[in-house]
Each structure stands twice: as structure tokens, then as C-alpha cells.
Write a structure and sequence with these properties.
Layout (H helix, E strand, L loop, with lengths): L2 H5 L6 H15 L6 E2 L12 E2 L4 E5 L8 H21 L1 H7 L4 E7 L7 H19 L7 E10 L5 H9 L24 H15 L7 H27 L1 H24 L6 H20 L5 H17 L9
Parallel strand pairs: 3-4, 4-5
Antiparallel strand pairs: 1-2, 2-3
Helix pairs in contact: 3-5, 7-8, 8-9, 8-11, 9-10, 10-11
Amino acid sequence: MSNIMGFIEGYMTGNAWEDLCVQCYRIRYQNDDYIAIPATQGGDAGIEGFTNKGIVHQCYCPERQYSDNELYNHQRDKLTSDIEKLMKNADRLRALGVPPVTEWHLNIPEYKDSRILAHAETKRQEVVKVKKDKPADYVHISDSFRIVIKTAEDFTPEISRIIRTTLTDMRLNLAIQHSDTPDWTKCDSRKVANIQRKIKAVMLVYDDANEALNQVVGIYVDYYISGLEIMNNLRIDFPEIYEDIFQLEQSYKREVSIKTLMNIDKAMNRSLFDNILNEFQLKLERDFSQRFTQASIGELKQDLVASWLADCSMEFRSD
């Protein structure tokens, strides 16, 4: 699964995918007078919308999880049937004001088989040949006609903007499956030592063999590792949202430093740590509840707290 699809909560339905694609086209092709075509009152003529440059698009989202080969077969059949509609809908497209079609886009969440690209090229050649043989019958097709496969990855900036401006009910899903045993090799030994030292001070447990202590340390090592991966993926796929999180994290991290450094009573470490967790949760919910699932808010909180434990921004009195 592509990174961006992994962030989108739940399995996307056909209607949800179509709504998302239309919003993306409205943003990307705003200067090309993009027009969406409702499916009511005579149908959508086989396309979701068009631009004044002759770009039209059609969406397809599988209704359930398929094997790679099954997915290819469904995408291939969808492309074939919709290109046939395009060829037959000359009058309907002209009536809607669609200019000669230069690019026909198939919007799919993702593809896993390059045969869909080869099939698109085969169908393009067939369209070009038919038009060349009977040009008067296909004036609604441009001489430079192309078929382009567009996936969610191609609309990362638009999807990020849609989520960031809360124009959709869609929420990003950051929650990941954690293992019972963290991969300690992925965490620098100095970071592990920092986490262990601070958790000891919070729990007021100084026996390195204490089972509960080691379990909590392991959990935060795991959060630290997953946090690095999640933040890196956000930085690449949703840079504006990443920047918003980064700004909040940086500002609250300074507060955390002050709160922990000013504490002079180690007996207060646990309540101070709990207060920081609760307060940070509220800040994340205030700023990101419209962009992330509730589980993602919890994941993000623990991931960032783990980074404070691993680095020098959070200290607890130990003497």
C-alpha cells in the first residue's frame, strides 16, 4: 500500500474516492475552469468532470480487497468499458461543452501491476487509429489523445490541503500495529539509556531487573521508533501538516523543559509526567482532531513524549 493510502482512515468506498478526486481536480485545475459533472439528470457522460484544456477524468475504487491479479483485472475492465463510453458519447460531451479530449485520466487509489499501463497504451493506440480512420465521427477526441493513470500519490498536495483545511470528513490514520517486543537495534543505545533513566525517575524504581520498569521502557522505545517513521512519512507526504505538528511540538517541548526542570521534589515526578501527558493530549485534540483519528491523536502523543524522553527536553528529579 502506498504511504498516502496508508494514512487514509478505513477502506475507501467508491463514492468517497470519487468525492475526493473531484475535490482534488477542483484545486489542481482551478485555473483551467474545471467543471464537475453530476451523475443525476441524464448521467455524467462517462466522466466525472473536465477542464477547458480537454482533460477529463473517471474514477474507480475497488469495492473490496483484491489480490494483485484480481485488482489488475478490475482496473483493466473499468478502463476498457469507460473508453468505449468515451468513444460513443460524442453528442453528450459536446452538449456539456467538453472540448476535444486531449487527456483521459483514470483515477485509482493505487495499482500494483504495470500491465495496467500497457493496457492504457494499447487502448490509446486503438482510439487514435479509429479517429484516424473516421475523423468526422470522433471530432470530440483530440489528435494528441492520451490516457493517463492517476493514483492517490499523484494528488498528495491536494489531499493534504483538503485535510488541513477540514474540507472533508476524512481523517488521517497514524495508528500502527505495535509489536510486543520492540526492535532495540532501531534505537540508539544513548536514546535507550535516556528513556530508561527518566522512566526510573518517574516510577521511582531503581532496580534494573524490575519487570514493570523494563516493560514501560520497552513500550516507549517502541513509540520512539514508530514516531520517527510516522513523522518522516508525514514530512514527505503531508509537509504542511507535518509543519503544523512540528510547530506545536517545539513550543510545548519548551514548556515541558521548564516544568520538569523547575520540579524539585522527585515524589512529584509521576503526577508531573501524567499532567504533561494529559495537557499535551488536549493540545493535540484542540489543533488536530479535524485531521486525525482519535487513535492517531493517542499515537502521536506517545510518539512525541517518547522523543522527549529519548532526548534532553524532558528531565525528572532523581535525587
